[in-house]
Amino acid sequence: MPRRSSTESLEELLAELPEDLRRQAFTHASWVEHRAESYERLAFLGDVVLSLAVSTHLFPRFEREGAGRLTKVRAQAVSGPSCARVAQGLGVPGELRAAAPTGTTGRSAEMLVGSERVLASICEAIIGAAYLAFGFERTCAATVESFLAEIEEALAHPVDYKSVLQERLARRAELVTYRTVSEEGPAHDRSFIAVAEVAGKELGRGEGKTKKGAEQEAALQALDALEEAAS
Question: Which of 140, 198, 142 is nearest to 166 (CA)?
Fold first, then answer.
């Protein structure tokens, strides 16, 4: 794991970003003619860097933990709500308002700053931009520094994604059911795949060493699908 020589954070890397990368990180797709000029490509890259940075931090810290526990902690620490909270701390809403073009027919800045998914994507875009500008080692250290509170929260208070999904669907008068669609491997090393379904339609799919673990992953994927549909 790269050693941190300081407490440098993403906020400091953001301040040092080259202007072209900084501008792209705060550009919504509806503001430009070509989607490639928006933050989406940077967010695609940043999502991978974020996952690897947190994994790199967790791996030596929990030598006795299996992959399942580490996967759950990482998933919660880098989830949409976590990224959105980090984005708030980085001042993304203000930066987005300042970057919004005038006279555009695209989405307004006020509409965007109210979207958890947009804030999370811009957080990932900042990480992607930092990776391109400063390389993995420096970006990894700063990313872990900025996400430490989210990592500790995930360790102390694991989220029950099935309950979260059930509560969200209840507000829409909908119910979720889970179905195991695959069960493979010997008795001592089983692997399950479960799907979360709403009105007979698959909303999320997950894999785990237990049926409950697979259902939790399916619920997490379903929550991501709901967020994407709402954005």
Answer: 198
Which of 78, 79, 87, 94 shows the shortest CA–CA distance to 119?
A: 87
CB-based contacts of 63, cutoff 8 Å, min separation 6: none
**Nearest CA to 87 among 110, 111, 115?**
115
At residue 217 the predicted structure's pLDDT band, cuts being 50, 70 and 90, is confident
DSSP state of 101: P
Where in the sequence numbering do the catalytic residues fall? 47, 124
pTM (two decimals) = 0.76
CA pair distance 139, 151, nearest whole angstrom:
17
The 10s digit of each residue's pLDDT in 14-67 is: 999 999 999 999 999 989 889 999 999 999 999 999 999 999 999 998 888 777
Cβ within 8 Å of residue 202, ≥6 positions away? 195, 196
Question: Would you give the end-to-end CA distance of the chain in angstroms?
Answer: 35
